[in-house]
From TrEMBL:
Key words of the record: Signal
An individual GO BP term: phosphatidylinositol dephosphorylation
Stored InterPro entries: Endo/exonu/phosph_ase_sf, IPPc, Sph/SMPD2-like
Domain Inositol polyphosphate-related phosphatase: 60-221
Protein's name in the database: Inositol polyphosphate-related phosphatase domain-containing protein
Record field: transmembrane: none
Record's GO cellular component terms: cytoplasm
Signal peptide, first to last residue: 1-20
Species assigned in the record: Parascedosporium putredinis
Length: 360
């Protein structure tokens, strides 16, 4: 069955019986590491690319960001991992023309990691179709009972007609995936969107309008007002006010409240010894506070990464009064095909045909 969780109204404890934390903080970083082979793209970044990659990895360790999403992590991936010390790291999917260039390192473990290729790409003003770009998904365990679905993405680049069509399709593909696989969950989406609010042909607002997510840059730096006048960032940027194509979006859930507290371009922290840049993109850091809801707690997930995701949390969180359960039903033979829950008020919740595989 698809990994599912048990939601309860009981105070959570750790396996040792110690009361689990109910609030905390973490930070995230998104950075395009300019890892294409120099023969194809120098990215206007001086210096040796292998040396620059080692320096980037060393900075990852020095600053200790909790979750780092990388894009264009192609042919110099091993050099970044050589100097990075994060305990949890995704394996590379390959160099340029083979892999997606998307990788994540973190201080937290995760489950259900997957890579998805874009349904649409365009070579109108570049070579986006020559490598399987797309997005990744992982369910990150920030703390006991605190799970956040994390997405990393790198959309189609360029502003030709085909590029715009492909990029908007890319963004829509992620938004639709969130609706299906992250229903009821806290979510973070951060990466290289190749999009700007001031470029009206870009549908970057889809994460807000469709998925109910917030952009911390708009929230914290722009006072909640989406910009209409373009402000291009220098590199390294000396202000947070300008807009880049690298972005972060977030939302909480009925179990986990998320609040962005600080947004920063980390440009000055990612420089070579001589002061030159390490990437043609300004890295973005966002700090978050999290807290558990007073009403719901969540267990760890059970099952595997296949089948159909299901959760009754949106329904349960919309109900007032007692959520006392009167009956739980299971149906299946060699596999679990259905789970049913009936509340004391008569509300019946049931999921059919969970997956064609044994229950783990």
């Amino acid at each position: 069955m698809r990994a599912s969780q048990i939601i309860s109204a009981v105070l959570a404890t750790t396996t040792t019986g110690v009361l689990a934390a109910t609030s905390g903080t973490f930070d995230v970083l998104t950075i395009n590491v300019a890892g294409l082979p120099a023969i194809f793209n120098s990215n206007d970044v001086p210096g040796d690319k292998a040396t620059n990659a080692r320096t980037i990895g060393a900075y990852f360790s020095e600053y200790g960001y909790d979750i780092i999403n990388m894009q264009e992590d192609f042919n110099y991936h091993a050099y970044i991992y050589e100097t990075d010390a994060h305990p949890f790291r995704t394996p590379t999917s390959g160099g340029a023309a083979i892999g997606s260039g998307l990788n994540t390192v973190a201080n937290f473990d995760w489950i259900n990691f997957s890579r998805t290729k874009w349904n649409t790409c365009s070579n109108d003003s570049g070579a986006d179709c020559l490598t399987p770009k797309g997005f990744t998904f992982m369910r990150v365990n920030v703390d006991d009972g605190v799970w956040v679905d994390v997405y990393n993405l790198h959309t189609d680049a360029g502003t030709a007609a085909g590029d715009l069509t492909a990029r908007n399709s890319n963004l829509q593909q992620v938004a639709d995936y969130i609706d299906t696989w992250s229903k009821g969950n806290a979510v973070l989406v951060f990466g290289d969107t190749n999009s700007r609010y001031t470029r009206t042909s870009d549908q970057i607002r889809v994460f807000s309008t469709q998925n109910g997510m917030t952009d911390p840059w708009v929230q914290l730096v722009r006072g909640g007002v989406v910009p209409t006048t373009e402000t291009i960032c220098a590199n390294p940027s000396t202000t947070n006010y300008c807009e880049t194509v690298d972005k972060v979006f977030y939302r909480g859930s009925p179990v986990v409240n998320l609040a962005a507290t600080e947004f920063s371009y980390e440009s000055s922290k990612f420089l070579q010894a001589d002061g030159n840049i390490l990437s043609d993109h300004n890295p973005i850091r966002v700090n978050f506070n999290w807290s558990l809801s007073n009403k719901f707690r969540q267990s760890n997930y059970w099952g595997g990464p296949h089948g159909t995701w299901f959760t009754d949390l949106p329904t349960l969180s919309g109900k007032s009064g007692s959520l006392k359960t009167s009956k739980i039903t299971f149906r299946g033979g060699s596999r679990l095909d259905s789970v049913g829950l009936t509340l004391a008020d008569g509300t019946a919740l049931r999921t059919e045909e969970l997956a064609a595989r044994p229950l783990l």
